[in-house]
Design brief:
The structure is a single chain. By secondary structure, this protein is mainly β. It is 3% helix and 52% strand. The strands form 2 sheets. Strands 2, 4, 5, 6, 9, 10 and 11 form a 7-stranded mixed beta sheet that branches. It has a 4-stranded antiparallel beta sheet with strand order 1-3-8-7, with no helix packed on it. The radius of gyration is 13 Å and the shape is globular.
């Protein structure tokens, strides 16, 4: 089982970026994105259920980020708009089987993780 994240880069504040995470080897009931900024703990960003009907977002990204998934490609996307310097972090995708607003935000409920992709937002 592998999760391959891509799409990170260096952008300016206000720009947009789309991250992708391609999974192979199995499918997941829920896929999520977490991020970790330098010197900080890993934090939840967004998650989406298998059907795509349930999405969950951290308050800090609501209205700016959109998570989606293409089950035919076993890929999850994170569209990030209106990026701010505080969004700078390594972004990790993860796959798990615990659906719900509580479990989807807990990193310990995800069994598989991608390698991370760096997003840097300059002011």
């Amino acid at each position: 089982v592998q999760l391959q994240a891509s799409g990170g880069g260096l952008v300016q504040a206000g720009d947009s970026l789309r991250l992708s995470c391609a999974a192979s080897g199995r499918t997941f009931s829920i896929m999520g994105w977490f991020r970790q900024a330098p010197g900080k703990e890993r934090e939840f960003v967004a998650a989406v259920s298998w059907s795509g009907g349930r999405t969950y977002y951290a308050d800090s990204v609501k209205g700016r980020f959109t998570i989606s998934r293409d089950n035919a490609k076993n890929t999850v996307y994170l569209q990030m708009n209106s990026l701010m310097p505080e969004d700078t972090a390594v972004y990790y995708c993860a796959g798990g089987d615990y659906i719900g607003s509580y479990y989807s935000q807990r990193a310990d409920r995800y069994d598989y993780w991608g390698q991370g992709t760096l997003v840097t937002v300059s002011s």
